[in-house]
Design a protein that fits this description.
eight-stranded parallel beta barrel; 34% helix
């Protein structure tokens, strides 16, 4: 079995880590760098920072947060929110990001996916998808933090994004996001089974067993968690231990290294 990554997702508004339910009702939690450092020390594999209001204000405000994170966090960092051009992507990569996640701008101008992939490599270009279920086996892609409809079928959109050069997919179920009752497994599997690039399941993790279902039933290559970690419900070590016990290949944590 392939190695599965465990990723901490940190949604940011201004200088605060925030969390909502279905991407709404955002609640301030604390300093995002403090949380990122905590998860790194616990053995997280990657960090995702999303400026959750960037599209609303037409800018990404994560420059200083990313720069500060790279002083204490030595795992791959993905940055998303408000990235509208190759120049925006280049700036964040120079600040220390390893990958760029794009949703709104990619929907409005799909060629941006190709432009970023051609400039920096497909491994840097993460297609961020916010999906809402509209019928059995059908989901619509949304943007602007899950507020705006696109009319795009999620399965068709992810295939188009892959052909344009996306090297990874950050898949968020808006319906389940923040509710901590499990991932939309049907959605994760539908996307993971139609593109040959890694798919990150995001939105809904509430217990360690949800990790196992996303991987074993949803065929996810990585799992992103937020509330379950931010509120101290479980630690990275506890979740990874359950994953290992269920037979999932995941980077082990040595207590001596923490």
């Amino acid at each position: 079995m392939k190695n599965i990554r465990f990723i901490a997702r940190l949604d940011v508004k201004g200088s605060y880590l925030v969390k909502g339910i279905q991407l709404e009702g955002l609640r301030k939690i604390g300093n995002p760098n403090d949380f990122a450092k905590r998860y790194y020390n616990q053995g997280i594999d990657e960090i995702i920072y999303i400026d959750i209001v960037a599209s609303l204000y037409n800018r990404n405000n994560l420059t200083n947060i990313v720069i500060d994170s790279t002083k204490d966090v030595f795992v791959p960092i993905t940055v998303g929110g408000g990235i509208r051009s190759v120049e925006d992507a280049e700036h964040l990569l120079k600040c220390g990001a390893d990958k760029i996640a794009i949703n709104t701008a990619a929907i409005k101008r799909p060629k941006l996916i190709k432009d970023v992939a051609d400039k920096f490599g497909s491994q840097c270009m993460v297609l961020s998808i916010q999906a809402k279920k509209i019928a059995d086996g059908k989901w619509e892609a949304y943007y602007d933090n899950g507020r705006e409809k696109t009319g795009k079928d999620v399965i068709q959109w992810v295939q188009e994004g892959y052909k344009l050069g996306a090297g990874e997919v950050l898949l968020t179920s808006v319906d389940e996001e923040g509710r901590q009752r499990g991932f939309d497994i049907e959605l994760v599997r539908a996307i993971a089974d139609v593109v040959p690039v890694p798919v990150i399941a995001s939105g809904g993790m509430g217990k360690p067993g949800d990790f196992q279902r996303a991987v074993c039933e949803g065929h996810a290559d990585a799992v992103a968690a937020a509330s379950i970690l931010h509120y101290g419900k479980y630690s990275v070590q506890e979740i990874k231990k359950v994953a290992e016990q269920s037979g999932i290949n995941i980077r082990s944590i040595s207590v001596d290294n923490l």
